[in-house]
Design goal:
- With 165 residues, the chain is mostly helical.
- It has a domain of 104 residues.
- The protein has six helices and no strands.
- α2 packs parallel to α4, α4 packs antiparallel against α5 and α5 packs across α6.
- The longest helix is centred in the middle third of the chain and has 36 residues.
């Protein structure tokens, strides 16, 4: 009985992973992580609004649509990279595979944004979130937003803008 359950479970999970890998590529787990962060952020946001007695179906719908918008942004970033890559190959005969980094950069930015949002919700709910997590995500976000990461790091170090006062 237990073996049959485990075999069925393995078959289902294996099928889901195979489909995800076929659709999203070798790094499907990054998209799965982003989806999990979307759900966790939505749940912590809902819990925060419940605890603060400011629940609103309209605000919840806007939040859900915002999450769908993030997925659209990711799709556009990867599609734009693919189109530009194909254009360069067709018109210039030059392969610029590094253009796909555009999609990965957008995905990384949104993953960090979701993680920060979750931590902010938890802090507002009264959870004792370790300061290094809050500081680390703030620094990472500022580095990603900087046009020149080295320059961004210098600005962060000089201003120490990630520290809570």
């Amino acid at each position: 009985m237990v073996t049959k359950f485990i075999d069925s479970y393995n078959m289902i999970v294996g099928g889901i992973v195979a489909i995800a890998a076929a659709i999203l590529g070798d790094h499907w787990y990054l998209f799965a992580a982003f989806l999990a962060l979307n759900v966790i952020d939505w749940l912590t946001g809902w819990h925060k609004s419940y605890k603060l007695h400011v629940e609103s179906s309209k605000v919840g719908l806007v939040g859900a649509l915002k999450k769908l918008g993030y997925w659209a942004i990711i799709a556009v970033a990867f599609e734009l990279a693919g189109v530009l890559q194909a254009l360069c190959v067709d018109m210039l005969g030059v392969e610029l595979d590094w253009l796909y980094l555009l999609g990965w950069w957008v995905l990384a930015s949104l993953i960090i944004n979701e993680a920060r949002s979750i931590l902010e919700n938890l802090v507002e709910l009264g959870y004792d979130v370790p300061q290094f997590l809050v500081d680390g995500l703030a620094v990472t976000q500022k580095l990603i937003e900087a046009k020149n990461p080295a320059q961004g790091w210098e600005t962060i170090r000089r201003n120490k803008t990630w520290r809570r006062r």
